[in-house]
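Table S2 (continued). Query chain:
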Amino acid sequence: MRRLINQRPGRGGALMLSMMPFILLACAYLYYSHARLADNPGDKLLPAPATIAATMHRYAFEEDERSGDRLLWTDTEASLERLLSALAISAVVGLSLGLAIGVLPYLRAAIAPFVAALSLIPPLAVLPILFIAVGLGEAAKITLIVIGVAPIIVRDIAMRTGELPTEQIIKAQTLGASTWQLVIRVVLPQMWPRLIDALRLSLGSAWLFLIAAEAIASTEGLGYRIFLVRRYLAMDVILPYVAWITLLAFGMDWLLRLVRAKAFAWASTGA
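Corresponding output:
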């Protein structure tokens, strides 16, 4: 008897299975959009694909009358600049502090509880505080993402550092390695792929905090545009913007996974 757990799809079958949910979602949208528009041609909740395409063509390829910008690309550039800056800062903080907590017992005893408590604070709850303390500029938006992402990366790297085989640490010390050499030559190389994994898992939260910050105080950005047009029930803008954000996040995740597979093939899990 062949058990389901041992049955694996081929490459073509896996591709078809991966596409099936998207195809079903598209078919459901087309069906319900057609049904709603048949009852009410002026319905805005599920606009026709042609309406969405026309709107996105205007946003992507035609200059805005007020600003002279192509809004989709201006919003994308603004959002990605904020997001990538915050992720870079979070990665540096997460790796350095996570390594220190994982390797140094005194530092772990002093800082680990504080980092754990910080990671449990809902970042959106401190958004008003950030706007009051830092202002409404780019610093507040980037800081919000860092507050939401960095503590999680710190804890993850610290835990993974603590899970390294004790034999490795003992052998390195037996060979005369100092604490600094131990961190640089034994621990750090094994944490690079884990850092990439942590960044991949944090992408969803990072986008959430970015959209929230842009919705409250911004003049450009993907989140700003979505919340700006919601008052007009402009689903022909909101839906493709949400799809574009999803595509950008998926592309970032794929790129990080590719870097991990190419640079750290020895640690590749296929996830």
